[in-house]
Every structure is written in structure tokens, then in C-alpha cells.
């Protein structure tokens, strides 16, 4: 903190206009303050470093100022916020809060007037001009005082007090960290309950501490999907064409899900202003690790999720009770400044892409119906794309919400067909009263959250997101649902690769789902004499929206087939004289471990039937392998 002290004959202050969102609310008669008596003016600027230990700074200011007041025999103190004393100011929200606290503390001993915070102001004063009438100081945070951390105290509410395992029949089993392994469900050898056991062990921090490099890192490198970027920091990746294609296809499918659900898509900026009070409240409550950006116009933050910008967007959307729920979707490029030891491959990254869906609901009944829809949609994603039979459902929420809605919550798990683990807290720690997490179990017996649905009871009133009722009045929505189909694309790809690693471990054939396979068909001509036929066939199949390439390299047939197998090509077509003469193609189908003789139309029909209505994109690199760089 930096201050400039003045012993003055008087001071006149006039608030002109607001300079920031975090400011004092002033009525018309509060904008002018005329103090026509002797006073001590403290011009002060709180600095960024003060946020680390304000108690220390505050103690120094109190001791110094009270001593000055006693020396001068003055009983009127003017606290004047003056950010221009520093080039490293604290956040406006922090400064305003601390100025108010200082006003109350000083008021216990002297009369205090606080000049308006967050306003452009004019002022006049007359320095009394004696040797003690001017002084300055720079107070640094010390580390002798143990500072009270309100955020940590607030997060104590997130400590869980109740733990409940729910089996496939909906029966509850209360457990705790000491006795959970004795839960009867774990006697059952079925994969559902063994997956649940791994998840609960991890939640209680009693799972295996595996120090090996996760398999998904090995696979993502082998298949040239993405890799670490040496000119960036850890947790930020470079994407190769194959990985980028999978990334974009996942986004396509997430958008398709959102549109079918009834959402409209929007897009918001990456930067969040640090001085927006309502958004700041949300960010502080969620307490994520922020990336700070200073472009010379004040501190901003790279967004950690879509919420801080999606909610102001939704605030501006006018909709009636007949148009509810209001559903929006955003593909949000997000940043979280995770600690060095926490970053691990694609499991925990610093830059990721979220598929965020929100529904502003006008009633609890409406919210419950939408919550269920989303759960069933996301269960299909887990079963059919990410992690079939290798996932569980985790829940977090308050004891009260669980008790009031127990039958409904348990029935969701029963209908989805997976066991569940509930962690319950005595009071809300964030914005949600309940949320679930679709957790994929990995090859190294850890778990990865993919989809989630969350029941938000705070942000409707907080952001004034509401509907127009029959009387024409705007009513805040009592529930806003947060949902994410793929969580983040990075985590979903991680879970998918880990699921494939489990297939390898269990001696099953590893492969991507057909719609996500970078190349879906490879043609291998026996020799250069068969290349023209291969190229014509490639053009014909490409016209059907199928990704196909031709291995026209001069390598041996066995090596080219081996390379296609290593790349997990779903369909391999070998072209020789026999195939050209008979117009029947030898097709190796990876998923079926067999070769079939099919004509071109049969191949196309077979592939299209398997693709169904999943998204398709064109190949993002040369179709001929001889043209591809390494």
C-alpha cells in the first residue's frame, strides 16, 4: 500500500462519474462532500501484493495513522482512494472491500469520512504547511502475522460429511473413509462394482499410486495425434492433423447433441474483466486458478469456463414462460493455471475446450425433466463412444438436497444402469446444490471425469437471468442447469485412449470408433500396375463422404498392411489382378477380424450403416501416403 498524508484546513470532494463496476453506489445527494474543518487526508492506493497479506499492511497503516492523528491533535480522518499512487494496483473489488473495512476500524477511535471509491472525482484542499503536514509511506505485506483467509473458511463448507454407495437396484450403503472396503457391493465381481471400488478408493485417496506414464500419452504420440509443445508451457499442446480431426469431430457431435436438445449456439470472448463485480463474485466463489492478463488497461483473466461470460449473455436474452427453458451452448476455449505437479498428460491441462450447455428453467419440475434428459444423453456417450462398461457415476451435493430428492436421484442411476457414489456436504460450497460426474476408469486405475450435469440455484438471481411471466414481470429462474457432454475435448480424448489401452491390456483389438478414425479406409495396390484402379476407387468412395487413402509407397505389401494395422485402419482393401477382374474387393474388417469379398457398393453400404448419423469431416492431409511428410 502506498499513501500520501496531508494535514489540511478543509476538503471538498465531488463525484463526477463512475470509473469502474466495483464502486460505491451513490444517491444524488451523496456525490458532494464539503468538509469545512481541520482534517487529516490519507490518499491511498492498495497494491497487488497487499492481496497476499492485507492484515500486515492494515496493522502498519493503523499504527502509523493513529500516531499521526495524536501528534497533530486531529480527530477527523479522510480516507481518499487514489489509485494513481501505484502502477500495480490491487483489484477494484479487493480495494473497495478493504477500504470499507478500514473505515469501520478507524471509526472506533476517530471521526471518519470516506471519499467515494470507483468514481472520477474533483477535489480541493488547503495544506496547513507546517513541518508535519505532509508525509508518505509504502507499506509492504509482512509475514509475521497469520492472515485470516475468508476463501479458505468459506470452502470449509465443502468438506464432506456423508458418503453413500448406491447399487444397481437403488439400495443405499452409508460408508466412510475407514470402512468403505467392507461395503457388501464390492463382493460382487461384476465389472460395474469393481469399477466403483476403484473410483471410491481414488475419492478417499486410497487407490494405487501409479508412477508410470499414463498409456494415453504413449498412444497419442504413437498415432501422431498431439504432443507437448517445446515453445509453450506444460499443459498446452500442439495438435497434429489426425488429432485435430478427432478434436473437431467431437465438437461437431457435441454441437449436434446441443442442437437436438434445443439449444442455440453462441460465442463469447476469452478475456474477463477483473473489475466486473458480479462476475468477480462468481470467479471468487468457484476459486479456480486464474491466468492473469494485463494489456495496460487493467487486470483481465483468461476464462476458466464459459459461465462468467455465458451468464451476462443470458441476462440479455428476453424469453417468456412459454419459451422456457432457455437453452444455450458454447464451445469454450478455457484456461486454468494448474500447479506444476498437477499437470499430467491430457488428464489435467492448462488449456482445454469445453462443450458447455446451460438451461435456465422456470420451475423445479422443468429442471428435473431436463436434468434427466441430459443424464441419459451423456450415458449414451459414455457407453457408445468413450468407455463402455468402464465408468461410474459420481455425485456431489448437500445433505438437504439429497434427502429431499433421494428417490429421484437414485432412480436416475438405476435407469442409467450404473452404480453411484454420493459425497454430501452440510452446506453449499459453490453454486450447485447437486451435480454428477460421469467418471471413466482408466488403464492405470485412476478415473477421468467426462460428462457432468449440475443443479445451480445461485446464478439465476445473481445474474438476473429470468423469464417474463404472464403478468409481464421478469422473474429470476430458480434453477440453471450446467451440463457438458464431453467435459473437455482433451479429457474425453484421454478417456477414449485409456479405454483403448484397457482393450490392449485385455487382448482385445484396439481401434477408434469408425466416425473418429482419421482414415476410415485404406486401399493398398499390389503394384504400380494397380494404382490407377486404386485411385479411381478412392475417388468413388470419397464422393460418399468417407475418409479413404491410398498407400502408393514402394514398400512391400506385408509392410504396408502392417503399417495400416498399426494405425488401426478399420477397413483395408487390397487391390490386385484378381480384384480388378472379378470386381470383388478383398476387404479386411478390423472389428470383425475377418476378410470379406465385397463389391464397391457393398463396401460403401457397410461403412455408411456403421457410421449412421455420426458427424463426418473430410480428410485433413494428402490422400496418397507418398505425399505425406513425417
Describe the structure.
This protein has 630 residues and is of the alpha+beta class. The chain is built from 16 helices and 29 strands. The strands form 6 sheets. A 10-stranded mixed β-sheet has the order 9-8-19-18-20-21-24-17-16-12. Strands 1, 2, 3, 4, 5, 6 and 7 form a 7-stranded mixed β-sheet that branches. A 5-stranded mixed β-sheet has the order 26-25-27-28-29, with helices on both faces. β25 (521-525), α13 (531-542) and β26 (548-550) form a beta-alpha-beta unit. α5 (215-222) crosses α12 (489-505). It is elongated. The two termini are 56 Å apart.
User: What's the total helix number?
Assistant: 16
| Share of residues in strands | 25-35%
| Distance from first to last alpha carbon | 56 Å
Major sheet:
10 strands, mixed
Given helix and strand content, the structural type is alpha+beta
Feature tags:
seven-stranded mixed beta sheet; 630 residues; alpha+beta; 32% helix
Write the layout of secondary structure elements.
Elements: E1 2-18, E2 32-35, E3 39-45, H1 54-72, E4 76-81, H2 92-106, E5 111-114, E6 119-127, E7 134-138, H3 150-155, E8 162-166, E9 172-175, H4 191-203, H5 215-222, E10 226-228, E11 237-239, H6 241-261, E12 264-265, E13 271-273, H7 277-286, E14 291-294, E15 299-302, H8 307-315, E16 326-335, E17 351-361, H9 364-386, E18 391-398, H10 399-416, E19 420-425, E20 432-441, E21 447-456, H11 459-462, E22 466-468, E23 474-476, E24 479-488, H12 489-505, E25 521-525, H13 531-542, E26 548-550, H14 557-566, E27 571-575, H15 577-582, E28 585-589, E29 594-598, H16 600-611
Parallel strand pairs: 3-4, 4-5, 12-16, 18-19, 25-26, 25-27
Antiparallel strand pairs: 1-2, 1-3, 1-6, 1-7, 8-9, 8-19, 10-11, 13-15, 14-15, 16-17, 17-24, 18-20, 20-21, 21-24, 22-23, 27-28, 28-29
Helix pairs in contact: 5-12
